[in-house]
Amino acid sequence: MTNQPALIHEPGFHSRDRELVPRILLRAMFGLAMSALAITSFAVLTGREPVAQPAPSEAVRDRWIVLEGHDAKAVTVRNTDGTVMLDLPHGGFVTVIQNGLVTERKKHKVDPLLPVRIVEYANGRLAVEDPETGWSIELYAFGSDNKAAFERLLDQK
C-alpha cells in the first residue's frame, strides 16, 4: 500500500454544449423572424389593405372620462367636470388601460389628464378612444370581466 494523496476532483472547464440553445433551434427562430419580415414587407410594398380589423359600426352611446393614475395600481376615474366617479386603490384592468394611455400620450407629448372616450357600438364592440393621439383599444379582446369594468363606467350616472 502506497501513501498517495487521494485524488480530489476539482471543478474545471467542461463542455457547455448541453447548456446552449441548439443550432437548429437558433436557425429556426432566425428563419421565422425573416419570414415575418418578408411577409410584412410584401404586404406594405404591394399596398395590401389591413385585415382582421373591427367592422365599422355606428356609436350607440359614449362617455368622456379622465383617468388619473396615482401609482402602478391606483387610478381615479373622473367626469370631465372633475367630479370623482370612482377611486380605485387597486384599479385592476382600468389601471392597465390608464397606464397604456399614459405611455402613448408621453410619446406624443400630450397631457395625460385630458379626457378619453368610452364608446359602445351597435355591433357590440366597446372601445376606449383617445382623440389626442389616435390611440384606441378594443375592450372585448380582454375578456368579459375586463370589458364589464368599462361597461360599469359607461352605465354610471
Short description:
The protein is an alpha+beta fold and 157 residues long.
What is the fold's blueprint, element by element?
Layout: H1 23-45, E1 59-69, E2 75-79, E3 84-88, H2 93-108, E4 116-121, E5 126-129, E6 136-138, H3 144-155
Antiparallel strand pairs: 1-2, 1-4, 2-3, 4-5, 5-6
Offer a few descriptive terms.
alpha+beta; 6-stranded antiparallel sheet; 32% helix; 157 residues
Describe the structure.
This protein has helices at residues 23-45, 93-108, 144-155, and strands at 59-69, 75-79, 84-88, 116-121, 126-129, 136-138. The chain is α+β, with helices and mostly antiparallel strands and 157 residues long. It has a domain at 59-155. The chain has a six-stranded antiparallel beta sheet with strand order 3-2-1-4-5-6. A hairpin with a 4-residue loop joins strand 4 and strand 5 (126-129). The longest helix is centred in the N-terminal third of the chain and has 23 residues, at 23-45. It is extended, with a radius of gyration of 27 Å. The chain starts with 22 loop residues before the first helix and ends with a helix.
